[in-house]
Design a protein that fits this description.
Strand content: 25-35%
Strand order of the largest sheet: 4-5-7-6
Number of helices: 2
Helix content: 25-40%
Shape: globular
Largest sheet: 4 strands, mixed
Order of helices and strands: EEHEEEEHE
Distance between the termini: 15 Å
């Protein structure tokens, strides 16, 4: 996972004969897969999102300034990559 911290982030997976090669391939693929989101006041989202993927439901709520990140470790990594700091995420089900 790579991110600019300014609203763009990407995810990549890589394989290689050594860990260093696999990391480099994954980083290159992540930069190719960058996506951008619109942020509200630079640190939150504009409206609440309700997403579903297979059996997993994710509820992303916009919060007031100074709230912080209330999310699981996996989601916290993604939110930091996008530069979101005032947000609440609830996951129902398992994240693969």
């Amino acid at each position: 996972m790579v991110g600019t911290g300014q609203g763009a982030a990407g995810l990549g997976r890589g394989r290689g004969s050594t860990v260093a090669i696999a990391t480099r391939v994954a980083t290159e693929r992540a930069y190719k897969n960058l996506i951008a989101i619109d942020r509200y006041r630079g640190n939150s989202i504009t409206k609440d999102l309700y997403l579903k993927y297979k059996r997993t439901k994710v509820i992303i709520k916009a919060c007031r300034m100074g709230w912080g990140i209330k999310a699981s470790f996996q989601m916290r990594t993604v939110l930091y990559a996008f530069g979101l700091t005032d947000i609440s995420v609830t996951t129902i089900g398992t994240i693969y």
